[in-house]
């Protein structure tokens, strides 16, 4: 007997409505997929039964469900089967939750001024406060514009990019001159004027002074400085560090010797918070080794070591045994695993904040540097690999498409920066950081173009094929990231959950994506990306089971 | 309430397709976790759970979309959906806000449901519904990301709807060539249906012409407990208790459910007899526990001499229009299409 209505159980063969490049395996229920939920058609009956069971448990629970929801850590609501099961397993509603990850970790002053408040009423009220006044903020800076000049600028920009793609540099050149003239009539301090100014500048370099493009990139020292201003002026890097640290902390639970490999140390901004969190962890801190990779210092200084010394001082002050090693390399692909001196006894975390995309070439067939790197990362057998990348499609071969994508992406980024009301000159320096990225995307080709951003969907496929499976970031990381935003940024920023990953964006446009990965056991090393999604059905239980 | 004898009241599973049952049950149980007894709402967890989708300028299934902030002060976002034209298969930024240029172009301002507290214009379930409306009605759809309860109570959602109506009315690129005006329809489901009514009311004195209202399972209520509420409480995904919670979260503090926002034809309702009100299409699901209020709404419009078409779907539950896997879905989409094209 059919306990469920049997009309319309058959999935339609309608094409996917998502813009993801991963095609769903045929057995997923198409209608639910369109709504954002992944369930295999063959699992529907089972999921329905579990939902009924869950309802019974909830109805019979003596406790307040909303309290349970506030305390529990929940993962990946898109995967309905595992979602329901994790709710069930997490919820022996009448007893204390077995999940050991507290939702109110103390984070140091560098990131948060106070411990997370114990209930949500604070944040709920906070979000009802009036948003600060700000000017010219739109998801697409080019729409709903009242000024004709602004519209004209956009038309010219796109036409110019088209002519560059066609190779008509004479036309491109004269369009650039038109645009520069038009810029004088537009407010270049904000909104479309600001963004257009950057892109006109980049086009101008590409067309008129291609030889100067290399020097526009600036020295490593300058870049580090600008990075620092970008870090301060908006929440993207703080979110990246915070979210990665949270995942690393959880992965390191129960381990006494831990080793973090940072693919781009910069000023080591990410690490004080982790050191302090490890200092405070129940049972005491582990021995922490940090290997920081960075460009060689030109003037004989060893800037990596200097940063290591400062971090060591901090670690000493909070009684964390700490060892630092700097690895100087001009390019990430020059780093070899033997330089990292990983010991088999330690739990390893590999941390890549906006670095992996540099290994991509525009020809996806020549993926050797990326494959090699992912291969040796895998061989290190890390407990966790944290990856943060720009959520953008800036690696297309066609120039016009790349240009247009970048125009959208960076206009949102600039708008979001405006909302943060950083003081000058800090804001201008942060913007310069972004401008350099734009310049690389627009002006450079071949090995000079390192800003080859690709969207999360592509990273999922790539990492899956390289033998990694996702470690889902949960509702606690989401909540803390949201709360971090209310402290450090402005109205308009949004954290979103995306199948176990977290994104931070401006309004509804995600701009940066954070994800965590672990190595898949060998026999499944060649599994496809879709298998990775279902290999980790109970996010909570799997983590606890990974202890050595 | 209408005709209840044949319906097996304890078996919600027998009346909806399996995947619909899974979808709506999941919402029901997840939403139970979000509402707190003290009237506050776990907004973080709600946002974590909500499946969101980005806008897409590259057309998919003949529709492209983009987001626009239409009011800086409240950060009011709308997602605009347009049919991809045959001549411009890949619109770029310049094509957004280019005059669509149709002789007659219906523009549907859509208010998503969620009982005033849940969902957003970029929620997957509503994004896909809006895309379907574009293709079925050959319309532009403007989905309004209105402020939600309990953080923002009455009248915030209505204010946002009104802002959106005024904004849409002023867009020269949305005008129909025939009369150089924007042909506006208001549509919404659940709380969105309630917003439709209230925004249309506000438009009455303003001189903005709303050509029609489409209310899908609109959210109305009142202090009384009606027969349908008593009979269907808890049977088809919805309980009186949760309905009460959402009204308490939306209405001004201290107010009861006879507040005119909740009960427009109740003891505190205002008469529509002397005002010009748009024609209405009211869709009522026969297994929705608030159907008596919805039927009373349709009746109230009729008694006031307003043009109203009631579509009563006896075996439909809430959310039947979210997945295109049942006859009711197609019936309703046809009706909406006719409703919107009958003014050409």
TrEMBL record, chain A:
**Which purpose does this protein serve, as stated in its record?**
Transcriptional regulator that acts as a repressor of the gibberellin (GA) signaling pathway. Probably acts by participating in large multiprotein complexes that repress transcription of GA-inducible genes.
Q: What is the lineage of its organism?
A: Eukaryota, Viridiplantae, Streptophyta, Embryophyta, Tracheophyta
Family membership noted in the UniProt record: Belongs to the GRAS family. DELLA subfamily.
The UniProt record lists the Transcriptional factor DELLA N-terminal domain at 29-90
Q: Where is this region: VHIID?
A: 227-292
Fetch the SMART domains from UniProt. DELLA
What is the protein named?
DELLA protein
The species this protein belongs to is Rubus argutus (Southern blackberry)
Which residue stretches belong to region SAW? 443-518
TrEMBL record, chain B:
Molecular-function annotations in GO: gibberellin binding; hydrolase activity
**Chain coiled-coil ranges:** none
Q: Which InterPro entries match?
A: AB_hydrolase_3, AB_hydrolase_fold, Carboxylest/Gibb_receptor, Lipase_GDXG_HIS_AS, Lipase_GDXG_put_SER_AS
Superkingdom is Eukaryota
In terms of one coarse class, where is the protein primarily found? nucleus
List, in alphabetical order, the GO biological process terms annotated in this UniProt record: floral organ morphogenesis; fruit morphogenesis; gibberellic acid mediated signaling pathway; positive regulation of gibberellic acid mediated signaling pathway; raffinose family oligosaccharide biosynthetic process
Q: Does the keyword Hydrolase apply?
A: yes
State where the protein is found: Nucleus
Keyword Hydrolase on entry: yes
What are the record keywords, sorted? Answer: Gibberellin signaling pathway, Hydrolase, Nucleus, Receptor
Q: Where is the Alpha/beta hydrolase fold-3 domain?
A: 108-321
* Active-site residues annotated for this sequence: 190
Gene Ontology annotations for the cellular component aspect, listed alphabetically: cytoplasm; nucleus
Q: PANTHER family from the xrefs? A: ARYLACETAMIDE DEACETYLASE, GIBBERELLIN RECEPTOR GID1C
Q: Which family does it belong to?
A: Belongs to the 'GDXG' lipolytic enzyme family.
What protein am I looking at? Alpha/beta hydrolase fold-3 domain-containing protein
Upper classification of the organism: Eukaryota, Viridiplantae, Streptophyta, Embryophyta, Tracheophyta
């Amino acid at each position: 007997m059919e306990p469920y209505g049997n009309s319309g159980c058959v999935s339609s063969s309608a094409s996917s409505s998502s813009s993801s490049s991963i095609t769903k395996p045929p057995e997923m229920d198409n209608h639910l997929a369109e709504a954002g939920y992944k369930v295999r058609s063959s699992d529907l009956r089972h999921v329905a039964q579990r939902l009924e069971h869950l309802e019974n448990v909830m109805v019979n629970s003596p406790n307040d469900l909303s309290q349970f929801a506030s305390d529990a850590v929940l993962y990946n609501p898109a995967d309905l089967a595992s979602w329901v099961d994790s709710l069930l397993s997490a919820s022996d509603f009448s007893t204390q939750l077995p999940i050991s990850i507290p939702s109110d970790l103390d984070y140091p002053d560098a990131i948060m001024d106070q411990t997370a408040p114990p209930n949500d009423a604070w944040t709920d009220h906070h979000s009802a406060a009036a948003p600060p006044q700000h000017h010219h903020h739109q998801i697409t800076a080019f729409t709903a514009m009242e000024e004709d000049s602004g519209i004209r600028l956009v038309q010219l920009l796109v036409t110019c990019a088209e002519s560059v793609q066609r190779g008509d540099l004479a036309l491109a050149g004269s369009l650039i001159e038109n645009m520069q003239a038009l810029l004088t009539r537009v407010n270049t301090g904000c909104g479309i004027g600001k963004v257009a100014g950057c892109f006109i500048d980049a086009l101008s370099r590409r067309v008129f002074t291609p030889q100067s493009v290399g020097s526009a990139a600036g020295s490593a020292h300058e870049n580090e400085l600008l990075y620092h201003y970008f870090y301060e002026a908006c929440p993207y890097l703080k979110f990246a560090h915070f979210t990665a640290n949270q995942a690393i902390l959880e992965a390191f639970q129960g381990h006494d010797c831990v080793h973090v490999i940072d693919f781009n140390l910069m000023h080591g901004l990410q690490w004080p918070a982790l050191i302090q969190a490890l200092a405070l962890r129940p049972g005491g801190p582990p021995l922490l080794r940090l290997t920081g990779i960075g460009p060689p210092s030109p003037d004989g200084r060893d800037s990596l070591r200097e940063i290591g010394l400062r971090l060591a001082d901090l670690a000493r002050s909070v009684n964390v045994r700490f060892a630092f090693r700097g690895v100087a390399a001009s390019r990430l692909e020059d780093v070899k695993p033997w330089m990292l001196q990983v010991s088999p006894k330690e739990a390893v975390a590999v941390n890549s904040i906006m670095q992996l995309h540099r290994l991509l070439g525009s020809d996806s067939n020549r993926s050797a540097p990326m494959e090699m790197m992912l291969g040796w990362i895998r061989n290190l057998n890390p407990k966790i690999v944290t990856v943060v990348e720009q959520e953008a499609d800036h690696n297309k071969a066609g120039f016009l498409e790349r240009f247009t994508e970048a125009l959208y992406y960076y206009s949102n980024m600039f708008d979001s920066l405006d909302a943060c009301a950083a003081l000058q000159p800090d804001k201008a320096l942060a913007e310069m950081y972004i401008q350099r990225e734009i310049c690389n995307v627009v002006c450079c080709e071949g090995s000079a173009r390192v800003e080859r951003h690709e969207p999360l969907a592509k990273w999922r496929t790539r990492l899956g094929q390289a033998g990694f499976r996702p470690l889902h970031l949960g509702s606690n990381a989401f909540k803390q990231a949201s709360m971090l935003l209310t402290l450090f940024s402005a109205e308009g920023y949004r954290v979103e959950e995306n199948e176990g990953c977290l994104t931070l964006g401006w309004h509804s446009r995600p701009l940066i994506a954070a994800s965590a990965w672990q190595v898949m056991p060998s026999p499944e090393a060649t599994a496809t990306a879709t298998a990775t999604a279902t290999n980790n059905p109970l996010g909570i239980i799997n983590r606890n089971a990974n202890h050595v | 309430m209408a005709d209840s004898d044949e319906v097996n009241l304890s078996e919600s599973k027998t009346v909806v397709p399996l995947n619909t049952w899974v979808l709506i049950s999941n919402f029901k149980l997840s939403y139970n976790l979000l509402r707190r007894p003290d009237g506050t709402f776990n907004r973080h967890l709600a946002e974590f759970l909500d499946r969101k989708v980005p806008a897409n300028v590259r057309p998919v299934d003949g529709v492209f979309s983009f987001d626009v902030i239409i009011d800086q002060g409240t950060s009011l976002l709308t997602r605009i959906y347009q049919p991809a034209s045959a001549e411009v298969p890949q619109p770029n930024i310049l094509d957004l806000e280019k005059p669509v240029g149709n002789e007659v172009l219906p523009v549907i301002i859509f208010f998503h449901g969620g009982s005033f507290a849940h969902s957003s214009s970029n929620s997957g379930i509503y994004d896909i519904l809006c895309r379907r409306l574009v293709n079925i009605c050959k319309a532009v759809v403007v989905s309004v990301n209105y402020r939600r309860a309990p953080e923002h109570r009455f009248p915030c959602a209505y204010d946002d709807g009104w802002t959106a109506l005024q904004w849409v009315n002023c867009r020269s690129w949305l005008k129909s060539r025939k009369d150089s005006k924007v042909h506006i329809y208001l549509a919404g489901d659940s709380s969105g249906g309630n917003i439709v009514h209230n925004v249309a009311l506000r438009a009455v004195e303003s001189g903005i012409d709303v050509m029609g209202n489409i209310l899908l399972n609109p959210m109305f209520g009142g202090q009384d407990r009606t027969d349908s509420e008593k009979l269907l409480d808890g049977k088809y995904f919805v309980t009186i208790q949760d309905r009460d919670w959402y009204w308490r979260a939306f209405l001004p503090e201290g107010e009861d459910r006879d507040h005119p926002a909740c009960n427009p034809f109740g003891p505190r309702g205002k008469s529509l007899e002397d005002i010009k009100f748009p024609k209405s299409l009211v869709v009522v699901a026969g297994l929705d526990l608030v159907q008596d209020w919805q039927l009373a709404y349709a009746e109230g419009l009729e008694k006031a001499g307003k043009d109203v078409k009631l579509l009563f779907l006896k075996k439909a539950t809430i959310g039947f229009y979210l997945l295109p896997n049942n006859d009711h879905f197609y019936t309703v989409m046809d009706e909406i299409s006719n409703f919107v094209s009958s003014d050409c």
